Amino acid sequence: MINFAHRGASQYAPENTMVSFRMGIQMGANGIETDVQKSKDGVLVLFHDESMKRVLSMDGKICDYTWDELKDLDAGSFKDEKYKGEKLVRLEDFLIEFGSSGIKLAIEIKQRGVEEETLAMLRHYAEDEDFTITSFIFDSISSLASDKHAPQLGFLSKSYSDELISQLKDMGIVEYCPEAAFVSEEIVRKVKNAGLRVRPWGIKDVGLMNKMVDLDVYGMTVNFPDLLSKRLADLYA
After folding, report:
1. Rounded distance, CA 213 to CA 225, Å?
2. Closest Cα to residue 89, out of 103, 73, 104?
3. Burial class (CB in 10 A: 0-12, 13-18, 19+), 116
4. pLDDT tens-digit profile of 139-170?
5. Rounded distance between C-alpha atoms, residue 100 and residue 126, angstroms
6. Cα–Cα distance measured from residue 118 to residue 106, given in angstroms and rounded to the nearest whole number
């Protein structure tokens, strides 16, 4: 089972920063999940929210600013003053450190129009078997799936239907990423029978984490990779 540190060890450290990614690996994660957007001048930046307000206390979006305007912002204090001065991370710098590490990467497209650049950069630094590109944006995933040399792709979803799984299978999508709250044994069985992996998100507490472990999913994104690491170690001991 892949223990994806969700934006790094984001329960303990400021999300999508290098300290958070490194902490996740130190806590036993064998995967990292992160998010890609593009700055005004075309730099691929790891950032989740559409708005900059929560993390950076600024108005606007990542795409409204150049990388030169973004690179020295404080992306740590929103979490804790001890992280004051933590910086935003470029996708390239992230991949320089983690792309060839053997860690599984789940890269979420948060903005239309960055798909091809993201894939090209991933392939420059990582092997195809070590990353999956995901998104809630169906068009982003379908555009990548249409290439005969498509990478591993996953679709993030807040719902389930047999028709959706059949469509994803026909497109060559390898991973269905549902919100954990509605995942059941039947859903996992159906998705696996269709030949897709199941990687839930929205694991908000240990009880839900343990339910996903019991359902034997491919992996899950967790803010507390240390707790999942301990659960898996106990399971496989």
Report:
1. 13
2. 73
3. exposed
4. 999 999 999 999 999 999 999 999 999 999 99
5. 5
6. 12
DSSP 7: T
Tokens of 165: 């799984």
> Dihedral (C-alpha) 179, 108, 4, 19: value to the nearest 10 degrees?
-130
Assess contact for 47 and 16: CB atoms under 8 A: yes
Q: How many residues does the chain have?
A: 237
Long-range (24+ apart) CB contacts under 8 A made by 57-65 are 61/37, 62/37, 62/38, 62/111, 63/37, 63/38, 63/39, 63/111, 64/40, 65/39, 65/40
Please compute the mean of the pLDDT values over residues 30-58 and round it to a whole number: 98
Q: Which helix (H) or strand (E) holds 135?
A: strand 131-135
